[in-house]
Each structure stands twice: as C-alpha cells, then as structure tokens.
Amino acid sequence: MLKKISTKIKDSYYLKYTLVFLSVFFLIAAYFIFTGRTFIRLGGDGEFQHYKSLVYLSNYLKDIFYNLIHNHQLIVPQYSFAIGEGSDILQTLHSDVYGDPIAFLSVLVPEKYIYIYYEFSICLRLYLSGLFFSKLCFYTGKENHNAILAGAVAYCFSYWAFFGLRQHIYFLTPYMYMPLIILGVEKIIKENKGLTLSIGVFLAAISQFYFFFMEAALTALYTFIRLICLYKKDIKEISIKIINIFIYAVVGLLMSMFIVGPIISAYLSDSRMGVETIVNLLYPRSFYERLVGIFLGNDFCYDLFMGYACPCLLAMFMSVKFIKEKPLFFVLNVVTLILLCFPFCGYALNGFAYVIERWSFAVGLVACYQLTYFFEDIIEDHKWAIGCLVVVVLASIATPWSRNLGVLVPVGLCVLFVAFTFLKNEQLRQLLMIAMVILNVLSIAYYDLSPIGKNRIEDAMPVEYSQRLLESSDGQVFRDYLKSDDEFYRYSGLYLDLNSSMMFDAYSTDSYWSITNSSLMDYRMALGINDHISWQVRGYDERYPLYTLANVKYYLHKEGDNRLVPYGFEYTATYDGYDVYENKYYIPFGYTYTDVINRSDWDKLSVIDKQEALLQGVVLNDEDTTLKFESHNSNVDYSMSVKENTEISDKSIDVKEKKGSVTISFENNGNDQLYLNFDSLVYKDIYDYVETDQTDIKVTITFGDQEKVIVFFSDEHRYYFGKEDFLIYLGDYKGNEITLTFNAPGEYQFNEISLINETTDTYAEEVNSLKEDCLQNVVFGNDIITGNIDVSEDKYLLLSVPYSKAWKAFVNGEEVALLEANDSYMTLKLNKGTNEIVLQYERPLGKVGIILICVGFAAFIYLALKRKRDR
After folding, report:
1. What pTM was estimated for this model as a whole?
2. Measured between alpha carbons, how far is residue 68 from residues 71, 73, 108 in Å?
3. pLDDT for 485-541, tens place per residue?
4. Cα–Cα distances in Å, from 45 out to 84, 158, 460, 678, 732?
5. Strands of 389-471, DSSP E
6. How far, in Å, CA of 749 to CA of 699, rounded?
7. What is the DSSP string of 538-559?
8. Cα(304)–Cα(282) distance, rounded to whole angstroms?
9. What's the CA gap between 603 and 594, in Å, rounded?
C-alpha cells in the first residue's frame, strides 16, 4: 500500500509542480518579506487603484451580506458618490476587482489583512497560470513531466508575470485564462467538447473585459492558423470547427453579459474614446534594438513586458528545424513577430485606443509552450541546439540595450542549459535543465529588485504604510472631523491621497480610474484645467468658482504647507496632519439657475469667460440663450525676455536645450486674482528629444515662492488626449515676474499666452443668486436621491452629479427630461412652486444583461446535458 502511494506521489506531476512553484514563489517573496515590503506598488496603480479597490470591494460585499443576514434585505448598491464625484461601482471598478472571482473572496478577509490577501491572490493567479498551462500541454500530447515543468515555471514566472506581481496585479488575469481558452479551442478541434471554452470565455470576460477583447482577437487568430495548418484546404471541416468554436464562445459570453453589458456601455462613453491617435508605420529604431533585451530580461517599452527564460528563445529558433513537419510553431513565431513589430497591430489589439503592446501576454504562451514541446529535441539534437544557442548569444550582444547583467546572466544560464544536454544520465540532465530555468527566472526577478539592477524594491509599499492607508488619510479627516451633519458636500485639496475617499465613504473631487465619465473630462477640457492625463482628476487647480459649483465646502492642505489656497477658503483648524480651509461661498447640493446659455454660444467664449459664465447661467445644448453675459476679467500687459539657448517669435518659443526658460514681467497694480492662459499650446519635437511613447513634456511656472507644472504630451504619446488649452490660477500674487521653464528642447507653439486679472467684486452676489432656491431635505439613499424645492419662478435645478443617461428624474411623481448641463453635470427644468424631486439610478444594460445571462446559462446547461446524453 505504502509503495503504491509512494509511486503515485513520484509520478504525480501536479504535486511536483506545486512544490516547485511554491519554492520559487517563496524565494521571490522572501526579498519583499525581509525588506518589510508588500507586493503593492507605492505611488502607482497598485496603491491608488488595485489595493484600494480591493479594500472597497471587501467592505462592499460585507455590507451586502450583513444586510441580507441581519436585515433580510438584498441591497446591492450600483452607484457611489465616494468614487470621484460619483460613479457606477461596477463600471469603475471592473478593471480592478468587480467581477473577478478571486477578488470576490476578499469578503472573507478582515480589512487590516487585505494586503496579505492581495499577495495571496497574486500567488493564486500565478499558480493557476502554470496549472492551466500544464493542462494545455498534457491535453495536446506532451507527456514528459520535466519538459512541462520547465515550460510552466518559465511561463508563470516570466517578467510579464513578475511585472504584474509588483505593479499591475490584474495584468495576471489574461495570463491566467489564455491557456484555458486555448485548451477549450483544442478540445473542440479534437473531440468537439466545448464546455471548457465556454467556461474560459466566461471567466475571462467577467474578470477583465479590457484584456478579454485582446484574448478574443488573439484566440480567433490562433484558431485560424491552427485550422489552416491542420486541415490545409479542407474548407468544410474548417468551417464546421469554426462554427462550433463560435457557438461555445458565444455561450460563454452570454453567461457573462450581466457584467460585460454595462462595461461595454462604459467603454463607449470613456474619456479616452474618440481621441485621434497617430499610428506610425514603424516604432522608433530603439524599440527594435531593445527587443532581445525585452525578451530575455526586465527591459520594456510600449508596455511590452516579456522576460522569458532564455531557453524559450532557444526553442523558438528550434522551430525552424520542424518547419515542414510542424509548421504551426514557425507560423506562430512569424505572426507573433509581425504583431510585435508594427504599431498598428498594438493599436488594433488595444481596441483602437492608442498604441501599446499589452496584448503581449500571449507571447508567453507561444514561447513557453515551445520550450515544453522542443525540450527533448534540444537534448537529442546537439548540432541544432548549439546553432540556436550561437544565434541567441549573438543576438544578446548585438546592441547596447542587452549588454547588461539582466540579459547576460540568463544567456550564461542558457549556455549551461545546452551544456547539460551532453550528460549521459538522462534524468539528471533534465533536472539540471529545469534548475537552469528556475535560476533564470530568479535572476530576472533579482536584477529587477536589487540595487545592482533596477532597485525596484524601493517602489514596493512598506507593510506599515498599507495599514496607515486604512487609518489616516484625507478621507478619514472627512469622515471623522468634517462630516458633522447629514448635509451633502465635497472636499478637495492639493495632492490628496488618490481614491482614499471611497474607503471612508467620503466625497471628494479627486479620482484615478481607468474608466472615467467622458462628460466630466469634456468639462475639464473646455475649461483648460491643468490635467496630466484624461482619467486622473485632481481637483480644479485652485480655481475657486469651479470648487463652489462642485459643492466643495472644505479644502485640505498637508499641515504647514504654504502652497496656494483658492480664494474664499478660510483657515478653520488643523486635524490629523491636515490644515482645513472652509469655503465661505459654499453652495449646497441642488442649486438653481434662471438664465440659460446655449452650448454653441458658450463654446465661443474664452476659457476664463466660460468659467465666469457658469456663475451666471446654465449651459444647455438645445435651449436658446437668455443670459446677458458680463465679463469680469481683463488682460494684463507684460513683456517676455529669454535666457540663453531660448528664442521667442510671435507664436512660438524655441527651446534649444533642456531647462530653457523665459521670464514674463508685468506691472502689478493691485491685481485681484491672476491667471496665466495658454491658448493652443503644442509641442513640436524638432530636436528629436522624444525617445518613447512615454516622454513627458513639462512647463514649470514659478511665481514668487509658488510653483505649478503643466504636463502635456506630443501627439505620438500613448496618453495624448488632445489637450492644448491651460488656464493656470496664480491667486492674488503680488509680484511682477513669472518664470516659465521647459524641461524638453523643442518648439512650443501657441496662439496666445496671456496674463489675466479677474475681479471678485461680483462673486458673492453671483453665488448668492445660485443658492437662493436650493434643494431641501436632501436624502441620498441606495441609488436614489430625494428632496423638495420651492422656486419663485421657472428655473433649472443643477445637480452636481456627472451626467449619465442611467439617471432618471421624477418631479411630483412624473418623469421629466434630465439634461446635460454645464458640459458635465445634470439639470432638470422646474416650474414655479413646490416640487418633489426623485432621482433614480439604473445601471446601463443591467436588465438586458440579466436576460442574456439567463439565456447563456440555459444554453450551457443544455449543451452539458446533451454532451452527457451523447456519451
């Protein structure tokens, strides 16, 4: 009996895989553990999005179960005002947690241990990636455990996976499900068994739709290549297989539509959609020079993360030997190279949003599977193995980009990998070859983390900081100090802790999510707000009218910070490390306008006049203008002087070297509130400064002891979103000089640079007019807002909720049109007298999604029963 058990253990691949996986994972995790760090990236998406959204989801699910168990009510909130200025929970958080089965298990974890579950979930994702990879290998005919183990280790610990581990946890989602989807395709091709494909599609779609689009496109491409290689010119058989694959894939997609339906709606209205992107025929030369280093090490460009064990490249070259017997691998390698080398391919696979190589998670499956497939061939055919090794070595030293320890150490290990093929003991040589693969992936991780390499361990969040985020932040100040009554208001501040508000059910102006309401960003674009990217919102650049219009009551500064505070905000107290300023011109939620300005008339105004017009009339698309607009600003005369290596013409500044600067001098005659306006500021790279798609162009504005920075992009930058107008608030600056410093050499073209003085003489009067009739007895419930208002004449009720067609409005029990107002918010027309207001939120495609998911699961059950009956 014991002998049988011993034999089973010895022959059990999955036990071997589990032990090896846990050992390698521990060796990588040990670097974090012994330095007191977590896997969460400090100051990046890991901190701001992934970790905080996981905390939020855990508490969100706990609240649902608490109400179900204790109050016997199923309450599933769809909308939250704690996410930015208000957002759909599913649509906003889907890119991170909402829909992901692994993230949903966080409901079982206390909040203070979420950081540990975050790390455990990474381990689980990596383990499942290797497990599904192994399942695919076994199903497609590979039997050598050592060969599959080598491929699995190379796959689940590649640099793509490692990058996901330390920066973007949800980059691991497609890496995990892609082998499962391909396994489903293979099962249909071989046995007409399609349930695995349906399950794979369902899991991939509900977990991460952004990557699912890529997975679907790449699977379709793989299926076409696979069937052509398998059936050649047998069109009938190819057609039958494609139809079967399509049917099972659609069933899986239908099962996911409750999640996918609303997400498609969100993507169609995302702030990044509709931006014109330049797609060149080729990447910069440096991209191609870096490819070998990217494949073998921890270099990356255009989000092309690979870093596969060097023997994978050896195996891919080995595919040339079998081009006639096994053309599939050679064709896949050629197609993969084409997809990598042409920007349009990255652009198309990124949903035609911008050029990026995030589809490259699939390269790992192609590369690592070939290591498994050609493992024995490398051992047996020494001439080919040595020939391929020579090519690998030459490629690795061909350019300066790959002449570093991060590449040369893996290449050296690959030399040993080939050397071990000459050993006579077959079992020993295979084990040593696996050891080389393990050392290879560990060397990539070590070079990435350690001071002798990239030293990226410094970017990892310390354990104590992850706990501090749960206990102390601007959101906590709002909850414990500011929110003393039930009145709705927002707070803002300079460089708040992004997305902390949602963890404390606080209402701020700041947010940072992959999906952002396009109406909100249209508003910010039209007003020239100093945004760096189109999905990160950091207040309103201290522009006081915009804070007032957004119901901002408090402004927070780090204690002792002397930077600019918006006009009208007065210091009240210091609490938990924050100086608190209160807006004496605060307007409650639900204020009213009498006059209208048509959107087309508003668009014709200057940026500063647009801001002032918002205090005087509501901006609507289809109503006639009734507003007699009064401007309260005037231009300030100035002169501009240059320093060395900078030249000025009427419409441009030519900066010949880094840190070029110009000085704006003016006579300060007791100006009130100053602004510096850039009309159509465009950067032209005439000195070939821009090297990659992530080169930022910065203009630093220095005035007195204050400093502000404009960050914008060339039109080839991945995050370019067409922003050219910037209106920068300088406050009540009493000096007479402003310095502009340019970080990048190039030509800075513009229509106009103007210095503007805005008087505040009428500000209080305009604010009081807006809050003369306000919504009373306001209650924010579960996806519903109620209140009542008595207006002395027909007016427009402005609701500072980002516009969405999902909101429905009812006045005195009758549904009324809810209009987009001020290019961002919502409004409804009120008749004179008393009005009872009800706003209800219903998620886009929510009901349709429920119907489709029922159809999908019914079809899945039918196909499963049919399969069982046929057997």
Report:
1. 0.92
2. 6, 5, 16
3. 668 899 999 878 888 889 888 899 998 888 777 778 889 999 999 988 777 888 999
4. 16, 20, 12, 30, 36
5. 460-462
6. 13
7. -TTTT-HHHHHHTTEEEEEEET
8. 15
9. 20
